[in-house]
Amino acid sequence: xxxxxxxxxxxxxxxxxxxxxxxxxxxxxxxxxxxxxxxxxxxxxxxxxxxxxxxxxxxxxxxxxxxxxxxxxxxxxxxxxxxxxxxxxxxxxxxxxxxxxxxxxxxxxxxxxxxxxxxxxxxxxxxxxxxxxxxxxxxxxxxxxxxxxxxxxxxxxxxxxxxxxxxxxxxxxxxxxxxxxxxxxxxxxxxxxxxxxxxxxxxxxxxxxxxxxxxxxxxxxxxxxxxxxxxxxxxxxxxxxxxxxxxxxxxxxxxxxxx
Length: 259
What we know:
Layout: E1 5-10, H1 16-28, E2 33-38, H2 46-54, E3 74-80, H3 83-89, E4 94-100, H4 113-134, H5 146-153, H6 156-168, E5 171-172, H7 173-180, H8 184-196, E6 200-205, E7 208-213, H9 219-231, H10 237-244, H11 249-258
Parallel strand pairs: 1-2, 1-3, 3-4
Antiparallel strand pairs: 5-7, 6-7
Helix pairs in contact: 1-4, 6-9, 7-8, 7-10
């Protein structure tokens, strides 16, 4: 199995994405090929090297790069770290999944404290990402029938579910009921259909069951979902807004428990 590839994207590739690249390499070792780039690259802020060195995280190879220079590479994951990059990179990067991690820019604040805060927040997000990516349940079946795939897309709830999961990497039933404003039985029924069709796979973590695109989903099916999301961002914009109002995963878990 080839090593999965990942790129962090920000506007300047001068702070957040550089911190993310170095930290991800530090935490994941050689299990991913990791890159970073900017849509309008600027020189790397010296405080990036300062805070990384303080934590004994290697800064070898860190330099500002233009996203267009990597236009010929296909990534398994593209992670944007600011809203401006998310809006402008969607047509510039080729990736199976595009995720949005929005962090405040630390550069306008004097000193290194804001950089440390971003590094801590990135550490938590990367920890969850690695946990999820390494512990998915391997599906025993593989989608081989194009007709069943397109039938799945023909339902509004299932289509939005797939696009949300592709954008967020994985979601639980509670998160989807909130995002789609549907009942839990209805969401669970559609998830079971997508699981049976080998389009989704799930994993259990404690009392939670999380759903993601099947690891062995054919490339053509992944590309259909990517192009659908790219050309129809408004289709799930309200659903993403409802999901974002739940906060990050720890806050979401608290809300799910309350329900």
